User: Which sequence fits this backbone?
């Protein structure tokens, strides 16, 4: 079985607020007002950056955290840096996915992105949300729609690189990424985005239920699998690790979410 990044001390209520790729309304929303948006300068001899509309999703901030959760997440972030970007050169792509729905993938991605941005030399992070149309938070255009309009990826990235952490809906469906043109557009965008972001995190619905997850796994430098520690069994983990290996996907680690302790941890020291 792959390397265990960390066992997160979560609870089932956290999972209940999460869809197959998007956290929902129980979490508070932090949003930048229009007054805070700085108008970009026009770029000579090219398309003005201001013509590219910002389609970033509203960020969800889970404030129902505790010290144990924060420490666990920092360990996961540290493991990612050591495993994927030990020399801290930036431009790394990590895909987060699960084996089933409601295991906390989006919550983990949101939290890890904030830690990477604030704790480690203020990395700039891009989250690409592969849930269908970005889930209930998305009232914007999607990345695939924008790329299909032949907007220069460099201009698009310039408009979306003001914040340390940016989440964008890809707008992926079962049909969209099967189309070769959409797959090529996305691949080319990620290649360009590597030059502008320290980390690109894919927030992907359950691996075995997402037809294009194998393609995304090969684009990424590594895959982190989020599982329910009280539900998912070791044979199932071994099987998916073997499947990923055969597909040429680098499984860098497993996050055991919703770890439960039958006895208070302070009592375990005396047993």
Assistant:
């Amino acid at each position: 079985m792959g390397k265990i990044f960390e066992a997160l001390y979560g609870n089932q209520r956290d999972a209940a607020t999460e869809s197959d790729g998007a956290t929902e309304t129980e979490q508070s929303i932090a949003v930048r007002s229009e007054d805070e948006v700085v108008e970009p300068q026009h770029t000579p001899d090219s398309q003005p950056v201001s013509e590219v509309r910002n389609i970033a999703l509203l960020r969800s901030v889970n404030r129902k955290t505790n010290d144990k959760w924060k420490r666990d997440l920092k360990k996961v972030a540290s493991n990612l840096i050591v495993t994927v970007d030990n020399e801290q050169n930036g431009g790394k792509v990590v895909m987060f996915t699960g084996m089933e729905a409601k295991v906390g993938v989006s919550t983990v991605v949101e939290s890890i992105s904030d830690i990477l941005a604030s704790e480690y030399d203020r990395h700039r992070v891009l989250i690409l949300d592969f849930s269908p149309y970005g889930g209930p938070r998305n009232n914007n255009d999607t990345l695939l729609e924008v790329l299909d309009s032949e907007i220069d990826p460099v201009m698009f990235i310039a408009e979306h690189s003001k914040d340390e952490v940016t989440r964008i809906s890809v707008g992926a469906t079962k049909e969209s990424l099967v189309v070769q043109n959409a797959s090529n557009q996305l691949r080319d965008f990620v290649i360009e985005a590597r030059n502008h972001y320290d980390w690109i995190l894919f927030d992907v619905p359950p691996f075995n239920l997402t037809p294009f997850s194998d393609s995304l796994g090969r684009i990424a430098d590594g895959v982190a699998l989020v599982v329910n520690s009280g539900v998912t069994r070791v044979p199932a983990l071994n099987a998916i690790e073997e499947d990923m290996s055969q597909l040429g996907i680098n499984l860098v680690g497993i996050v055991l979410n919703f770890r439960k302790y039958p006895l208070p941890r302070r009592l375990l020291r005396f047993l």
User: Anything to note?
Assistant: Strands lie at 4-7, 28-30, 59-61, 92-98, 125-129, 165-169, 199-203, 222-228, 251-257. DSSP finds nine helices and nine strands in the chain. The mean pLDDT is 75. The first strand starts at residue 4 and ends at 7.
